[in-house]
Amino acid sequence: MQSFRRWVEPKAFRYDVFLSFRGWDTRFSFTGFLYKGLFDHGFRTFMDDREIDKGSQIPQTLREAIEDSRVFIVVLSANFASSSFCLDEVVLILQEFAKGKGRWILPVFYYVDPSHLADSDSYKRALEDQTEWFDSQRIQIWKTALSKLATFSGLRLIRNGSILEYQYIELILKEVSRHVTCPVGLSHRMSKVNKLLFSGSDVGVHMVGICGEARIGKTTVARGVYNFNSDTGFDHYCYFYNVGDILSQSRFVNEGMAILNQKKVFAIFEDINDSKQLKNIIELAYQFGSGSKVIITARNKGLLQSHGIESIYEVERFSKTEAFQLLILKSFNSTSVSADYVTIFNRVETYALGHPWTLEVIGSNLSGKSVENCESALLKYESITNRDIQKILEESFNALEKCQQEMLIHIALKLKELELGVVEDELCNYYKVCPKKDIRVLLDKSLIKINEHGQVTLHPSTQDMIRDKIARFESKSNEIKMSNITCYTKLYWYWNHSCPHGEPLLEMKEAQTWAKKVELPVFMEEKPNWQRKSIQNCKSENLGFWYCWVGAESVKACWMAGSERSSSRVWHYEFDVFISFRGEDTRLGFVGNLYKALTEKGFHTFFREKLVRGEEIAASPSVVEKAIQHSRVFVVVFSQNYASSTRCLEELLSILRFSQDNRRPVLPVFYYVDPSDVGLQTGIYGEALAMHEKRFNSESDKVMKWRKALCEAAALSGWSFKHGDGYEYELIEKIVEGASKKINRPVGLQYRMLELNGLLDAASLSGVHLIGIYGVGGIGKTTLAHALYDSVAVQFDALCFLDEVRENAMKHGLVHLQQTILAETVGEKDIRLPSVKQGITLLKQRLQEKRVLLVLDDINESEQLKALVGSPGWFGPGSRVIITTRDRQLLESHGVEKIYEVENLADGEALELLCWKAFKTDKVYPDFINKIYRALTYASGLPLALEVIGSNLFGREIVEWEYTLDLYEKIHDKDIQKILKISFDALDEHEKDLFLDIACFFKGCKLAQVESIVSGRYGDSLKATIDVLLEKTLIKIDEHGRVKMHDLIQQMGREIVRQESPKHPGNCSRLWSPEDVADVL
Prior knowledge:
This protein is an alpha/beta fold and about 1100 residues long. Helices cover about 50% and strands about 10% of the residues. The chain folds into seven domains: about 15-180, Toll/interleukin-1 receptor homology (TIR) domain (Rossmann fold), CATH 3.40.50.10140; about 185-315, 3-Layer(aba) Sandwich (Rossmann fold); about 340-345 and about 355-470, Arc Repressor Mutant, subunit A, CATH 1.10.10; about 575-610 and about 620-745, 3-Layer(aba) Sandwich (Rossmann fold), CATH 3.40.50; about 745-895, 3-Layer(aba) Sandwich (Rossmann fold); about 905-970; about 975-1080, Winged helix-like DNA-binding domain superfamily/Winged helix DNA-binding domain (Arc Repressor Mutant, subunit A, Orthogonal Bundle), CATH 1.10.10.10. The chain has a five-stranded parallel β-sheet with strand order 2-1-3-4-5, sandwiched between helices. Strands 7-8-9-6-10 form a five-stranded parallel β-sheet, sandwiched between helices. Mean pLDDT is about 80; it is low at about 475-570 and about 610-620.
């Protein structure tokens, strides 16, 4: 009955990954980071958290974990062989691997040499020490196991290498993802099927249908349900595919039913496509024992219903959240993505219409591409208007290298459903090169997969695409003449149709490509008389390259080196974070992981990877000096050998000096050193400084400065870490959080600054220019004015930034502000002006000969402008005056001609700002995507609203987001109302009344209709009042003539009315809620 046994499958693995490691060596560092990476990527990972004593036996729970794991990662560190427990673990792992079942072993040689592993010095000594405790036979078993383990393809970490530990971990995660799939959206679909399976009675045989369109994921759901229930008390577990072939073999059916008859069976029949098949399957299934569960997958729901199957689950397309999860996973092998890519992914999601296979193929092809290159690739997909999956697959195929295309065809035609190792050997023998790298590319692009049995498979759509190409070119047979063969496309047809018995290739004298002898493609190798020859050094003009076979009619090819334009972000600072560290101590491990965590959060981080021993920072500005000057936050990692480096000490001096002068935060990290040793220069730090004093005997001041710098840095608030304090990744999370609190990076400045710089024309020395910046409160006028001021201040003789003019004028009067301008621009700090009039006279006298840059922030009255800026004639040639206000009319009435309206943030900018405030990163997490879009739609690009909403959502779970957004959309947050109310408070009484009328009743109405209704109340002043509200951007008129008002502004207005009588709505001036009106009447 062996023919039937292949369909009776073992239970699924409980764990995706089993980690074997020496706890003391790597638990809290490398292996800890690796475990976190695996966990974050959704892999079920077993990591034993106990330290085992010498001679201890492996507990049963650990044995079961090894038996129940699919992938084994063995971290071979310096002291690994000193643990008998670790050695026994390796023996068990190799035993389980030998059983097959699609398992995979990845050894990680953590700064140990894989060659002759068991005989290396450290391992040899460790095994010799074991003779005191164990007999020679057991030690020989360990040696054999280590030698065997060293033969597996793995990763080797090199002490002085250029690859950092976090980069090795990324490679491991990528390899694991190729062997273990974690399908997106599977969990809730499985739960729906399980509910149908087990909701009824256990009497009899219960059947459930899974239906849905092609490539929607029916098999994935069925396989997931099968694995989930594979250890739940059934007598047999069977998964039947190729059902048509099975039913045609009567012997097979008889054997199967002899085993399954009246037994409790969990069975799946996959891809049923006709009524006869389904009828036969149902007849067979009813011979199973009571309590059996049967799942049948089919495209046609009506087919299932017509045969009496009532419990049917129809696989739905992906939601937006699931689509984003899959795209991010396939494009970046990550759980989050930079906000820069969200627009691209939105377009992909819209194009794919939630179809998982389309999303997977496109996402895989976008892997590793810049935003610009993703845009280019997406345009090609969007040109495929009917979303033909085969044409979409062709785009991925065409992006492959020539050899990768050949290998994919080879696999499709000859190697499908063979184990990965066999496929690799076959390709290696055929192409005479190691195919591992090319196979990885095919896996990454989802053109092939590795199933749970370790076999290489192709999706039926991929197989169809390849067959379709061959058939397409065969259809051109009548047009092809032998003399026109210039590429393999035509050669294939000739071979298939004109040379049925084969003939020597070199006899085809008329073929244009035979300047040299030709390498035959895979599909020709079976013809005995066709010779495989080399075409190396052929001229490219006539040479038919392999890719001609996949559709290129022209044999002339031009390859262009791809260049990725760097994403140009202009910040006020070049770097968000500067890391100072001792390279030999921490570069590969801790600091490398810190750098990765910071960059993943979106922080532009300065991290010097290549360090030169003894290099000092020169007095002239160096790369490091410039980086220090252009960094926001400094993280200084004090490790054991930090103070022995003069470069590190000079770097610390520069950091402290610059941070004190510019108020930049410094965050110290005491990594396995005592802060008191750093501050008091005792212990290893004392020894290092004593060594420097001997070396720089004639420069004692230099060492004294270093001592003082160390003392100052040790007194700063930071983090201390030593053995027993937990995992290093937990410390890094704290550092990143601490840095994020210190960084407040404005969003959306780049193009606005470009436009304002054009208006400002700071380089010109002719004339005096007044520039107005206006917009609603909270739109970012002051932020823009500050950025503009900072960017051009160095070009002027006299500078003054006068902020909060409106508030300060009310508190202190205009004379005080005039005195402030004089103090800032000409240094007359003790001057006392008797009146505004005298101030005007003195300002004109003092400033006429100077090139002045003056900013007046938040002007709200013409009297302020008259007293503080007067006319351009007050200032010397080349002067610039920047005025921010909410009132455009105020600027125009004062003769300001250059006026810039600050608009709401664009979608991408708003998304970035919200993410920075809500997640402290520019990354987008797909689980939150729907909630993010609710917040973005609600805030409509208003920076202040985005900041307040985002900050309030920080650290909350999805359920809390839902609840909080409900609150915003119903009763607005009071802090926001107070901020938005600033614009309202600046209105006169008539303007306030009309604003409240519109907020309560007329939003969305035609302007003409509103004017008709309220004209009796406002009379002749109505038009002027509407103009004021428009100028203050409290309302807008759209292209259809309707009055528009932002939701936040509308709710602020309505809240003002509510507060007139919170407990008794009938006493309010306006009623708009039907419930309130009904209560009052």
